[in-house]
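This part of the workshop introduces the protein records we will be handling. The structure tokens are whole numbers drawn from a learned vocabulary of backbone shapes. The record below serves as our worked example for the rest of this section.

===
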Amino acid sequence: MLAGILVGLVEDTARLSTLGLLLPTFFQCLLIAVVCGCASVGVSSIGASRALTMSAWLLLFIVPQVVALVVEGISDWPWMRLLSLPALLEVTGDAFFQVDRTDDLSWQHAIPILFAAAGAGAAVAMQRLRRAEVVG
């Protein structure tokens, strides 16, 4: 339905380019939802303490991004961004939309790390459910 609305609202010359942006947008949104969702659920299942959960969430999402930006700003070395989930999602977004990057990071570096983070988050959450005997 959204595709039909977007195609119907644009001029005839821009219809193909509008349709060409829907698929990368869908895959980028799907990747963000899976990675951030699984990682957040995994972090939330670490412990019952809300403070521990918030601290772990900050350590997972915010601190690596800040450290990577500082290291990249000082030494022009972008490889520290491999530790940051938001930076890896940015790299994959650039690949989906075919944006040229100025650094050497590519989606081949980012996708395995993102899948590992999502898998680890799901595994931690499943382990917590098994310990609580919710899932057999």
